[in-house]
Queue: 3 jobs
Job 1
Amino acid sequence: MAVLVRRLDEGLPLPAYARVGDAGLDLYAVRSLTLLPGERALVGTGIALALPDGYAAFTHPRSGLAARHGVTIVNAPGTVDAGYRGEIMVNLINLDPTQAFVVERGDRIAQLVVQRVEQVALLVADSLPDSDRGETGHGASGGFAGAADTRLAHGRQVGTVELAGLVEPTIEG
């Protein structure tokens, strides 16, 4: 499938697959910046697309940035609708509690996955048909139902979430 791309920054490479068979095209940063611990920034990629109707693109984090530096995408995956013609932006966040992260112009900051999507018609129902899973979720199949999950923000404990009952987090200390 061919997709029209508008190059907004001639100094950057076009998105490309690193290897045959890869799902994501590498996206590059248009500018250099430093993300302090807990900081986020909207970073341009220097491209705009014309996706055909029935398709969308999704910006996904790069696994190496997440694993080695704690840098990911705030709204992962970010959605690029078929009708959007502006620059693809990536909302990066540095989740490392102590180390700043430097993004250099031209660094690979995300991956773009293009997928076929369906639009649906929602039909209001008073009840839903039964299924094997039912209403279980949020860790139920992994043995974590009812387990407490402690959240951290900027290196401080933010609160506790009960996975089977979702308690709102509160700031402690």
Job 2
Amino acid sequence: LFRNMGGDHFVDVTAQSRLGDESYTHGVTAGDYDSDGFQDLYVCNIGSNRLYRNCGDGTFQDVTSEAGLKGGGWSTSGLIADLNGDGLPEIYDVTYLAGREPFEHVCHDKQRDNTPRTCSPAVFQAEQDRLFLNRGDGTFEDISARSGIHAPDGKGLGIVAGDFDGSGRLSLFVANDTTANFLLVNLTNSPSEPLKFIEQGVLAGCAFDLGGKAQASMGVAADDADGDGLTDLFVTNFYNEYNTLYRQLPGGVFSDVSNVARLKEPSLAKLGFGTQFIDGDLDGWPDLVVANGHVDDFRSHGIPFRMQAQYFANLGGGQFTELPAQQLGDYFQQELLGRGLARIDWNRDGREDFVVSNVNSPVCLVTNQTVETGHFLALQLRGVESNRDAIGAVVKVTVGRRTRTKQLTAGDGFQASNHRQLLFGVGDSVTVDELSVRWPSGREQSFRDVRIDTEYLLIEGRTDVARIPRP
């Protein structure tokens, strides 16, 4: 754990914070499961996962056993979010492959001199995901079997929770490796009802690519890429596959528009993992950043191993172009084995940065130093009737003739959690005409007297806005 001390300075406080988990860890997710105002951590491991309660004094307490979070397996990603609307966040555990065989079986590439290689997940059985219901007393109940989340052959790597159909309920998109992606649609009408999902990825059009093929889905990014007010999904995939942009259409269905968006060809010679939408120049159109890197070293056969990350600028309306590495800075010119990627404005200058984990290389903190940018509006949300983290809130910012829409999601893709802030680029505009929020509870509010280049805290039910001082 690195504490931000300000002034380009971080301090390793792992020992003091009591977060020194020495398990074989794949991912982590953050959320306030006990609604005390402090972000807790759920760590996804091979074996027993860990729930760390934030004590609010810079330390964490391992409450895994007390919380009743039993079971092991191979967890890759997770989320903490209120899925039934009672204000108490659940924990969803994305799992990958079952049993010991994935760690013991050796595969060989028969097309390349019988070279030992990483086994395809298609060789192994899938592990079933797990869902833990928050009882409200610090403990959880495993409701996986009766909640409807169990679907055949889900080898999960990434997840995003969001309201994808306008129902006001959080549904779950799970990116599966070599098998159909899941869209677990939330059918729960009230907190008094048992939590229930139905898998509708195929019907919704986001299970396969345009050709009807399951891809090696890994990272997931969610945002309104084309400015129509609906949340779209971008999914990274394997080498010689293409990364997929699923445009959301009215009615909660999706269409693969990767080729039309000019994202297909540039991704074929890459193997993508972590990804996020980032408005790097604050023009109001979310760009894309992708961390790349292979899982096998086949350089002797002409296949790249370490790879450069990619940045795709949104030209408006969901059309993208890849920017050259030399234009972007040192990070994009390095060849790395990129994995998890999270969005964060770590220096709070109104320009979104990101952090990337790498295999056998240090973590990269990539700072946005774009000089010619537009103006911005940064928002933090606090639920009162809704869950405190306000996951599922939909915010609209109107500037001139254009309305920008963002949703506060959870899960945030592959093995990571984003900064819980919604940052709107507003381009050259110097005023905000309207700011509205639809909270997860269903309450709708409008806020006035909002200035650009400012960070605000919006609290559900309060009409005033609290300005957060910048450093």
Job 3
Amino acid sequence: MIDPPEPDDDTPRQRAPLSWHAGDMPYSEEFGDFYYSRADGRAECRHVFLSGNGLPERFAGRQHFVIAELGFGTGLNFIETWSAWERAAAPGARLEFHSFELRLLDRQDMIRALAAWPDLGPRAERLTAGWPDKPEGDIRLDIENGKSSISLHIHAGLALTEVREAKFDADAWYLDGFSPARNPEMWSEELMQAVASRTCEGGTFATYSAAGWVRRNLQAAGFTVEKRPGHAGKRDMSIGILETGQPRSPEGPLAD
């Protein structure tokens, strides 16, 4: 499949063209790829993105933690992270979750995708209740549970532009774009450099991909990269750490 040309910044945001497989498995017609593992999307999230970034253990004792993500998709990674945060967060702690997405799902498509896991329950309902029917721009959602809080910011637009303009320094990154073979722009050297520039010292990343050129781009950006066993029989995934970066500011203000 040939990737379509990227729009300029003034182009209206396009919503994601979907088809559905095996009932409620969303499939991107644009990129020829599924939104999450056909084996178990939730287990993939926990194995790759949470465990790969040392979460939820790293939440302990932190009053402010920043996660950033390439590819919001159905919101499944966010919901799994939300659940882990509420279990592990200290009283009064706050989590910033920034996600970069060009093709936003319609509200009804998100509801349909998340309905595959009824036990997501109130969190899925809270997310979709705050989601526009036909989203076009940035989306913000603030969540309070009486103990800790979460600030979700969807940066709608081209990832390279949006990451470069962002004002945060992430403790952890979820690199979850569509397959590098299908969507190489989401794994480019320029974008990985931008990711590194928005990562604090000691910040980490995790991704399901172990493609050699992706790992080389991350290494060129300054990350120490290693492979570990992937999810559901996939041979490898990649994790890494930025040994030098922006100094962490645990009590800093929430980013824009």
